[in-house]
Design a protein that fits this description.
The chain is mostly helical. Helices cover 69% and strands 0% of the residues. The chain is built from eleven helices and no strands. Helix 3 runs antiparallel to helix 8.
């Protein structure tokens, strides 16, 4: 990936787990998977995380790429359509809450640190509750405005989906930092192939079929024990 030092620093900032958009509040259903015994060790955690990453690639990944390209083309209607399509792929309430809360936080951060007229307009519409305000669309616009490539955008989304689960796993699954870093290293090898699969995808190609994950999320909504929003 060819990029200058400033662009690389921006990418590192936006993918840092300490970047304050609220990822620490969510587990993508892992908490319930651990409670039900479906994820109990490094092997089952890797399988679960891979499923989450693939689901994210074919939903949020496609929406982010379309938002990125629409921002470059200064096509606000294209951004709105990507936003709408991203939310349609979220089948449970907590996942919708997660993407909208993180989308708003990212847009608010952008307004403070790197103002962009398209992100600012989208945030105004979000405040007026006329747009969903999803996180991948906020990411796509911000990365385009900062001159970060769409491949890097996709990798940031892939890393975020994987790291969100693995960070949560350290709090609710019997795994070590060594286990989670090995999983992250292996799943990083799959990012380029996933990008190649989705880079030409249209909205009609988006799919989120991972019924076990959605069932776990629905159970979590009514659960009495929780560390995370989902």
């Amino acid at each position: 990936m060819n990029c200058d030092a400033t662009t690389l620093m921006r990418l590192m900032e936006f993918t840092d787990s300490a970047f304050p958009v609220g990822t620490f509040s969510f587990s993508n259903g892992l908490e319930t998977a651990a409670e039900e015994g479906l994820v109990r060790d490094a092997e089952t955690l890797e399988r679960y995380t891979r499923d989450i990453a693939r689901q994210a690639a074919f939903t949020d990944g496609i929406a982010a790429l379309h938002a990125f390209r629409s921002r470059l083309a200064e096509d606000y209607e294209g951004i709105l359509e990507a936003d709408r399509q991203a939310l349609l792929c979220k089948l449970n309430g907590e996942t919708r809450l997660m993407t909208r809360r993180m989308g708003r936080k990212l847009a608010e951060l952008s307004k403070r640190i790197f103002p962009d007229p398209f992100v600012d307009r989208w945030l105004d519409d979000l405040t007026a509750q006329t747009v969903p305000g999803t996180y991948p669309v906020a990411q796509g616009m911000l990365f385009a405005a900062c001159g970060i490539s769409e491949r890097a955008l996709f990798c940031a989304g892939h890393y975020g989906a994987v790291n969100l689960v693995l960070s949560a796993a350290l709090r609710c699954v019997r795994v070590s930092h060594f286990d989670t870093q090995r999983i992250l290293f292996r799943l990083s090898d799959e990012a380029e192939a996933l990008y190649a699969e989705v880079r030409q995808s249209e909205f009609a190609d988006m799919h989120a079929f991972a019924p076990q994950i959605d069932i776990l999320a629905s159970l979590h909504e009514k659960g009495s024990k929780r560390l995370f929003m989902n």
